[in-house]
Amino acid sequence: MPQATGLPDILERDAAGTSAAQKAGAELARLVDGKDDAEAARRMEEREARLLAHYRDKLAASLSRLEASEAAIEAERESVRRMRMETGPLMDEMAASLAEVVAADRKFLSGERRARLENLRAVLADPTLTEAWKTLGRPCQSVFVPLYPLAGPAKGTAFTDPATATKELCAGTPAMFDYRADFTPHSVFSASNNAIDYLRGDELAKRTQLIQAEEDKFMKDRAAVTKKAAGLKGEERTKFLHDYNQKSYDHVLKIMQAENARLMPNKVKILADVVKADGDGTVDFALLGAKGHEVLSANMEATRAGMSANQLNSTRQWKNFAPAEKMVYKDVNNDGITDVVFTFKAKDVTKGAVAGAAMDLWLYTQINGHRVTGFDVVPVENDKVKMNKGARDGKGLL
Q1: pTM above the 0.85 mark?
Q2: At a CB cut-off of 8 Å and minimum separation 6, what does 361 contact?
Q3: Cβ count near 328 (within 10 Å)
Q4: Helix (H) or strand (E) holding 285
Q5: Helix 203-230 and helix 191-199: axis angle, to 10°?
Q6: What SS3 class is residue 378?
Q7: Nearest to residue 146, comparing CAs of 159, 156, 131, 127?
Q8: 30-50 tens-digit pLDDT
Q9: Does an H or E element contain 371, and which?
Q10: What is the pLDDT of residues 146-190, one digit of tens each?
């Protein structure tokens, strides 16, 4: 007969079973956790594989475009080298032929013509003496600035540096469209063109006279500058010519700044921290009165606002810009002189503006029958592109 089992034995075996069950449960939980971890790791690896494949394709496409660009640049360089080899002898023959013509021709301005031939021979012998003229605005409304291209541009005339330009090639960052006072070809020269386009009257004739007078001064001194540079060598010549580029540009810039102050004596102030390009709201433009330039008797019916015309289309008619919705007189800047405030629909004023950029917006009006214009700079945004950091990365432009 089997031996009777006592209560202690039963309790001992029960405890052992319970312990074994607990160990088995813990092992099962460990295995389940391990399976979950393995599944999570598998999903992560699959995601990383998909991302790798996605960006590998993008990188391959970018590399392909860069290689194509590099090949095109090299082809262009080769074309320039070939052109230089082909045109060099031709230019020498042309100079010799011109010399014969001048020698055989009548003595009409022979000294000036011989000087030009000497300059041509000098340029053919040394390209660093190449003379050029550059306009920084509309040619018929801007003074052409003399320069020597190989000596480097004047400060303020380059929109950006090569490294930034390369980085921005496919980025389209809205910040690159910001109005910048330091980029004077736009902030001074284009602004002057825009003002004259609207003011018209005798301003075109005044500008033509100014251009003629300043360019005549440059023409008178140019031969002497080139002659002096020809007597210098290496870095000394480069510095001399670059200083001339800078001095010439600064001279014209100062003239154009004074012209803008004369053309736009009334300041414009946009009474908003930011303008919403896709909203139904309004924005106020204040034309500030000044001593000798009061703003009473403003013509609301003739008042418009928007981007500068030359930024959009130089042939765009003024009547197609945003019309004023209302007009009130008040002292906006508390200087004791009455100002006039015009209200416009924000979405109409910002037509053509880049969301995420600080843009120059213009006011076009009439005071006592005389045209008056000016601009202010304000950030523009919409629901997708804001002015805050991180929203100006260019995604809204692509």
Answers
A1: no
A2: 270, 275, 285, 305, 306, 307, 349, 350, 353, 375, 376, 377, 378
A3: 12
A4: strand 282-287
A5: 150
A6: strand
A7: 131
A8: 776 677 777 777 777 787 777
A9: strand 370-381
A10: 999 999 889 888 777 777 777 766 666 787 788 888 888 888 998
